[in-house]
Write a structure and sequence with these properties.
429 residues, alpha/beta, Rossmann fold, seven-stranded parallel sheet, 17 helices
C-alpha cells in the first residue's frame, strides 16, 4: 500500500515538470519550457506486445463509459446475447472488478479497466462494443487490427446539450481532439435512435460512417412487460411497493457552477402528492461528474450509485431534470416529466443547446414556485400529444427491438470470416 501511494505521488510530481502530446501515433514527452523531447511509437509498442495474438470472431469486449460497470446500452446488448449461451465469449472491462463482480451475470468475464489483461482481450476480440470513446486505450497505443469491428452505441438520447466537436471550447486536454478523431476513424458502426441523432453524429463527431438507426438497446426495457424491475428497484432503495417515486436527475455543469436555487424537495413532494395522489418518495440520481451537495436536498434517497439508471426510470412515476438526456428516454413510458432549470441562459452560453427547452414536451420552471405551479397545471392529454409530436419530429425509431437489431448485426459479423462489408439491405432491415 505504501509503495502504491509513493508511486501516485511520484506520478503527480512528474506531471508538474513533464508535458506530452500525441502526433501521428507518437507520444512525445517534453520537459516544460525546453526543446528536449522523447518520442515513443505507440503503434510499435502495441504491436510488439499484442500484435501476434489471433482474433477470435466470437469474442466481444464491452466498455460502459470507461469502466463504470454493468449498464447503459452495452448491458442490454449483452443481455440479448446471453439468451443463446455458449455462442459468444463476452468480456467486460470494469474498474474495481472485485467490488463490482456481483453486478454481472456469471457468463460474462470481467477484466480490470486499463490493465494489461484488458489490452490483451482487446487485441483478440473480434468485436468491440462501447458507449463512449476508447480515448484512454488509444492514448496507450491501442490499435484495431484488420478483421476487428468496433460498434459505437453512445449514451445520449435526443440529447439537448451540445457534445464533442460542437463544444470543443470546453476541452482542456490538447490531445483529446486528436484521440477523439482517431476513435471515430476506427469506428465501423454507429447506433442511432433517430434521424435527429444521426444528424448530430455527423455534425459533432469526425469522419462518421455507417450510422444505423436501430434505436437504443437500453430503451427496449420500456416496451417490455413488467418483469419485476420496479419491485427490485424499490426493494433495493427501501421503498414500499405502495409508494410512488419522484426521480430527480440533475446533470453536471462544465463551469463548476450549479443551480442558483436548489430544488425544494419537501415543497415539491407535497405538491406532487396533492396533484397525483398517493405517497411519494423523493429519489436523487446525480451525474457521476456532478459535485452537487447532498446537504442541499432536505429529503430523499440518494440513488447515484444504483448501477442502472434505466431501471430507476422504469420504476419512477415522474421525473424532474434540467438538461439530462435521460428524460428523453423516460418519455417513452408516457409518465410525467418536468424541467427545473434555474440557469438556462448561463448553461446555454457555456455548454450550448441543440434546441431550446421550450421545444421539448415538458413544462419548464426557473424556480421552485414555478415548478410547483407546473405540477398543478399538468395536463395528461396535452402532455401525451406533445410527446407524440416530439418523437415524430425527431424521427424516433424506438420500438423495443433495438437490441435485437444489434444482435443480428453481431451474428452477421461473427459469421463473416473476413468481416467483409455488410450488405446495405441487411443494415437497413
Amino acid at each position: 500500500m505504501k509503495k502504491k501511494r509513493l508511486l501516485i505521488k511520484l506520478k503527480k510530481l512528474v506531471k508538474i515538470f513533464v508535458l506530452y502530446t500525441i502526433e501521428n501515433d507518437y507520444k512525445i514527452y517534453r520537459i516544460r519550457n525546453t526543446k528536449i523531447n522523447i518520442r515513443f511509437s505507440l503503434q510499435k509498442r502495441y504491436q510488439s506486445k499484442w500484435g501476434y495474438i489471433p482474433i477470435q470472431k466470437n469474442k466481444i469486449i464491452f466498455d460502459n463509459y470507461m469502466g463504470m460497470g454493468y449498464g447503459c446500452n452495452c448491458k442490454y446488448v449483452a443481455e440479448r446475447l446471453l439468451r443463446t449461451p455458449g455462442t459468444y465469449d463476452l468480456v467486460w472491462v470494469v474498474k474495481d472488478v472485485a467490488n463490482n463482480k456481483h453486478l454481472f451475470p456469471k457468463n460474462i468475464r470481467l477484466v480490470e479497466y486499463m490493465s494489461e489483461e484488458a489490452f490483451k482481450e482487446y487485441a483478440s476480440a473480434g468485436i468491440w462494443i462501447c458507449n463512449y470513446h476508447l480515448i484512454a486505450y488509444l492514448n496507450k497505443g491501442l490499435q484495431k487490427k484488420k478483421g476487428q469491428v468496433y460498434i459505437q452505441l453512445w449514451h445520449g438520447s435526443f440529447g439537448i446539450k451540445k457534445i464533442e466537436g460542437d463544444c470543443r471550447n470546453l476541452v482542456i486536454d490538447k490531445n483529446w481532439e486528436y484521440l477523439a478523431k482517431k476513435n471515430a476513424d476506427v469506428t465501423d458502426y454507429w447506433i442511432s435512435n433517430s434521424d435527429f441523432e444521426t444528424k448530430i453524429y455527423k455534425q459533432a463527431f469526425w469522419n462518421v460512417k455507417n450510422i444505423l438507426e436501430y434505436g437504443h438497446p437500453r430503451n427496449d426495457l420500456f416496451f417490455m412487460k413488467n418483469d419485476g424491475v420496479r419491485e427490485k428497484v424499490k426493494k433495493k432503495l427501501g421503498i414500499s411497493e405502495e409508494s410512488k417515486i419522484l426521480l430527480y436527475v440533475p446533470t453536471f455543469r462544465d463551469n463548476g457552477l450549479y443551480e442558483a436555487e436548489y430544488l425544494d424537495s419537501e415543497k415539491v413532494v407535497r405538491k406532487i402528492e396533492e396533484r397525483f395522489g398517493g405517497n411519494w418518495e423523493f429519489v436523487v440520481r446525480y451525474h457521476p461528474k456532478s459535485e452537487l451537495c447532498l446537504e442541499k436536498i432536505k429529503i430523499g434517497i440518494n440513488a447515484t450509485n444504483y448501477p442502472d439508471i434505466q431501471e430507476l426510470l422504469l420504476a419512477s412515476d415522474a421525473v424532474i431534470t434540467d438538461y439530462s438526456s435521460c428524460i428523453f428516454d423516460f418519455i417513452l413510458t408516457g409518465r410525467p416529466g418536468f424541467i427545473f432549470a434555474t440557469d438556462n441562459d448561463i448553461y446555454n452560453e457555456v455548454r450550448g443547446l441543440y434546441y431550446p427547452l421550450k421545444n421539448t414536451p415538458f413544462l419548464i420552471a426557473e424556480n421552485n414556485e414555478q415548478l410547483c405551479k407546473n405540477i398543478d397545471d399538468f395536463d395528461e392529454n396535452v402532455y401525451e400529444k406533445k410527446v407524440k409530436q416530439f418523437l415524430s419530429d425527431k424521427g424516433s425509431v424506438e420500438d423495443g427491438h433495438a437490441a435485437e437489431r444489434v444482435e443480428r448485426l453481431i451474428k452477421q459479423l461473427a459469421r463473416n470470416e473476413e468481416n467483409e462489408e455488410i450488405s446495405k439491405d441487411f443494415l437497413e432491415s
